[in-house]
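so i finally got all the pieces together for this one. its two components total, 633 residues if u count the protein bits. some of the lines might not be protein, just check the labels. i wanna see the whole assembly predicted at once instead of chain by chain like last time, that was a mess tbh
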Amino acid sequence: MSPALLVVPVAAPLAAAGVLVLAGRRSPVLVRVVGWGVSALVLAVGAVLLAATVEGQLTTARLGGWPPGIAIVLVADVLSALLLVVTSALVLVSLVFAAATGEDDGSFVPLALVLSTGVYGALLTGDLFNLFVFVEVMLVPSYVLLVAGGGARRLAAGRRYLAVNLLASTLFLAGVGLVYGVTGTVALGELAGAAAAPEVGIAGAVVLVALAVKAAVVPLHSWLPGSYAAAGPAVVVLFSGLLTKVGVYALYRIWSVVFDGDRRWLWLLMAAGVATMVIGVLGAVGERTMRSVLTFHMVSQIGYMVVGLALSTVAGLAAGIFFLVQYVLVKAALLMCAGAVEVTHGTDELARLRGLGRREPALAVAFGLSALALVGVPPLSGFVAKLALLDATLDAGQHVAAGVVVVVSLLTLTSMLKVWNAVFTEAAPEPGGPGAAGPDAGPGQPGVVVAPPATRPRVRPALVAPALLLAILAVGLGIWAEPLLAVADAAARGLVDTTAYVTAVTSS
Amino acid sequence: MSAAVLIGVLVAGGVWLVLQRGPLPVVFGFVLLGHAVNVLLLAAGGTDRRGAPFAGRGAPATTADPLPQAFVLTAIVIAFGITVYLLGLVRAERPDEAAPDPGDPDPVDARDGERDDAHRIGGAP
């Protein structure tokens, strides 16, 4: 495998973004062609890398030809390659969705490409400091994207988001400095298992706390729901699949390599994971718009991945990785449904929407399938992920966590039902009609403004198509789960036994 | 030792400023915290060796470690850019000074922005 292939995901989107800033003003078509093309290219590179790494062939690139320890090392193992495929697919889908919502005029595509550069770089780097740099490369465009379109609510959300992330980045950098101070290196390969020494453990813990903020792990999660709910529909799709997931990836990587899955502290991770699951799902109960329900659920779903990490067994990590992959797709589909509703009807407030199920069958199918996948109903992808996680928790004797996984899934079902009932079910189209009975007869309530069905606009097919595609993918991943399960298992083995990764990073 | 004292003072000042009301002290607080971390990074390379780190010149025992210096340079650039952007956001959010925003689709949002606590970074939504 040519090392030059590893440079493509980092260099190509960045170069394309530069070209588009210079040349894209005049031609929206050029912007779309370049943006979609580059994302598809990265997807192809990711697929090639994944095929190679699954067979046990890790690829390493040492930029600039410097010796190990100084060179910028890019390395692809199964986990990195798998997430590269998933994230680039998500970038591609959200660019298509942004074209449908009309958000991709101006600087959306270049910014999204720079953001994706940071994501790919963070997935591929084998060095703590470069991880920091790539995370910043990812965050800086996100600050701009979040407030794009303006409005006081977005500005306030953007400032809060920026302040939290700036603080977390400062903490991250302090952690990197402490790690360098006590070990004299920031290369992940040379740090393998170094946290057995208490001073390195403490320095590494500072890095982990900073990453937990980025991943929105309870109790460091409160920045996420408010700021994501304020962003544009396509922007939040992009964010949901990339930003916190990079935090989760870095937690997986650093915990496995630097801490070597230290069994003494797993209870702490387990407590954080369980709390994240529960608090995220409970926070969604009182929310009143489709999007804010979904963003609160984001916190809850991150808890599942942290529980997988807290098991630190092959089965647990594999379940966590499988969950991460299917979750990125399913959540993007749900957020696209919410975005499609919002773009078409001007609001995604639950109390102001009603009866979309019969008028928008494609949207209802997309939302229904992905909501059930999120809940974990067989035969959808979420079922496989949660069953694997449940199996792994029971194997490890973590009965409390297993119980919480089941209960939180039920709570997820209730809030998905709440959204479904409010948005898609038919209620009294005419006052006094047969459907008016029942507690949620919306249009009859005072203060609820809904246009008569005949005048309400229809959701355009281009808005539904990406969500429908991802929902069908969720069904596919549920029924033909074996290939992805095998890949997740290989990725988990690479995390439990890091010898191959460490050799790939350190060998010259 | 002097580096440790400096970091302590900078962090103390930064934390105090971040906890103040109003957006500007918070931005300056982040600047101070960033400086504290930069000093920490420099100290991580060892403060006792001061020789210029050129290849082939000076003994390795006396030359400074160039890697943390490169880290700090990168970190300064990133922190500077983000600070300027944060200042821009703070400026854009003052309804009385900034230009009116014709693209604001929702008048409810504009009213939210005029609430007392809207100028606080990290304040309640």
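Chain A has one domain: 3-427+458-507.
Chain A touches chain B at residues 70, 129, 132-133, 136, 140, 143-144, 147, 149-160, 162-164, 166-167, 169-170, 173-174, 176-178, 180-181, 226 (CB under 8 Å).
anyway lmk what u think
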